[in-house]
């Protein structure tokens, strides 16, 4: 089974391509990616904190765990989307739970640790 990137947003009224960081060299924004089965309808929500090294240096403790973060040197939404899409497209697993768990290694999954 393969996955497909279905949509991207910032979780606000500002679009991914309309957003302009106040300081292009020092920013942090959460991007939401809807990812689903290739050929299927709908998908699950995955989030990534997209930030610059300077933002990290100024806002993260001298020692800190890191997860669900994509470090970039500039806010180039198309390049970010393409990078995430290539990663998503590179994965293949026998079923959706295994594929989603693999995605959850780098992106925050809405159903991570969910137990019915």
Please describe what this structure looks like.
- The chain has 116 residues and is an alpha+beta fold.
- It has one domain.
- Helices cover 25% and strands 26% of the residues.
- The chain has three helices and five strands, in the order βββαβααβ.
- The chain has helices at residues 53-59, 77-90, 96-103; strands at residues 3-9, 28-37, 44-51, 69-71, 108-109.
- Strands 1, 2, 3, 4 and 5 form a five-stranded mixed beta sheet that branches.
- Strand 3, helix 1 and strand 4 (69-71) form a beta-alpha-beta unit.
- The longest helix is centred in the last third of the chain and has 14 residues, at 77-90.
- The chain is globular, with a radius of gyration of 15 Å.
- It starts with a strand and ends in a 7-residue tail after the last strand.
List keywords for this structure.
116 residues, alpha+beta, 26% strand
**How much is the radius of gyration in Å?**
15 Å
Mean pLDDT: 94
Q: Which band does the percent of strand residues land in?
A: 25-35%
Largest sheet: 5 strands, mixed
Q: How many domains?
A: 1
C-alpha end-to-end distance: 23 Å
Class based on secondary structure composition and strand pairing: alpha+beta
Identify low-pLDDT runs: none
According to DSSP, the number of beta strands is: 5
Count of DSSP H/I helices: 3
